[in-house]
Specification:
11 helices, elongated, Nucleotide_cyclase, 7 strands, binds guanosine-5'-triphosphate
Length: about 280
């Protein structure tokens, strides 16, 4: 890392983002300097915080124990490098230098520019039409969130969203317009949920939002806000509404399958009680 060949690497983000966790580089860099950020990461990801940090930086999986050990060594190595170079090479360079040249614990560094990494991540995880997360990402995320919810007794909420009378939209305006409507509703959902929420295309014209650490009342408020935003959206003079089914984990409902079933029942209630409504 000290030779010229590697100098240009400093301007490149060497991060292959963790596909499921999407930890932003800025957060990773901040976590090194700012104990409050590291603590927040630990609160959110519990024992996996260090493993995720390293996975995001290197795209290599290490056990949580190893990761904690490496992370502390990287922080020290970063300080030494900064002193030796009389400038800050950045936490990414320090990490790769430590992993490749000092601990030799990474057989081959995966070096990818940040822009390319983001593109790969987006293409691998997001549905092209709605730009919401794909069903496969949703399944993994929900499973994981349910496990966390049970372990830490913090509820996760699930909102299932089904566009009303969408067949009629396709039949009246054509599939291309139908696609435009779906894309616009995807944008509307993405723009309306929190950073920590996971909006996804559940299938066809059915969408979903996973809301970690969210109680029923909050989930209902957010669903109601989404419902009214969808209702207010106009795409090429087409207006649609959507029905919402909300469920949260409880002592009885604590796995992904049960949570989906419960949200699906609520969605069915919303449909049979006249659509364009939120039920739980
Ligand atoms: N344009 C478009 N249409 C889709 C897509 N995915 C699913 N659909 C359509 O969504 C429609 C869903 O129709 P139904 O399941 O009958 O439901 P609905 O008409 O919305 O009726 P309710 O759910 O009872 O309100 C079907 O016509 C599907 O072809 C898509 O990606 N693009």
């Amino acid at each position: 890392m000290f030779n010229n060949e590697h100098n240009t690497l400093e301007n490149e983000a060497l991060v292959h983002f963790a596909i499921k966790e999407k930890l932003p580089v800025s957060l990773i860099e901040k976590a090194e300097y700012d104990p409050a950020t590291l603590q927040a990461l630990k609160n959110q990801y519990h024992n996996n915080a260090y493993a995720l940090l390293l996975f995001s930086l290197t795209h290599e999986l290490f056990s949580e124990r190893q990761s904690r050990h490496y992370w502390h060594a990287i922080v020290q190595h970063h300080r030494r490098l900064t002193k030796a170079l009389s400038r800050d090479p950045g936490v990414i360079v320090a990490t790769l230098d430590y992993m490749n040249n000092i601990s030799h614990c990474m057989p081959a560094a995966k070096i990818i520019s940040e822009a390319k990494s983001l593109l790969i991540t987006e293409a691998a995880t997001k549905d092209a039409l709605t730009t919401l997360y794909m069903r496969s990402v949703f399944d993994i995320a929900l499973e994981k969130q349910c496990q966390q919810a049970c372990k830490h007794n913090a509820p996760v909420a699930l909102v299932l969203i089904d566009i009303d009378n969408f067949k009629q939209v396709n039949d009246s305006y054509g599939h291309i317009s139908g696609d435009k409507v779906l894309a616009a509703i995807g944008d509307c959902i993405t723009a309306s949920v929190r950073e920590t929420d996971i909006p996804a295309r559940y299938g066809g014209e059915e969408l979903a939002v996973i809301m970690p650490r969210t109680r029923l009342n909050t989930a209902l408020d957010i669903a109601e806000r989404l419902r009214s935003k969808v209702e207010a959206t106009v795409i090429d003079n087409i207006r649609v509404t959507a029905s919402f089914g909300v469920a949260v984990t409880t002592q009885d409902i604590c796995d992904a399958k049960q949570l989906i079933q419960s949200a699906d029942n609520a969605l069915y209630q919303a449909k049979i009680s006249g659509k364009n409504t939120v039920c739980y």
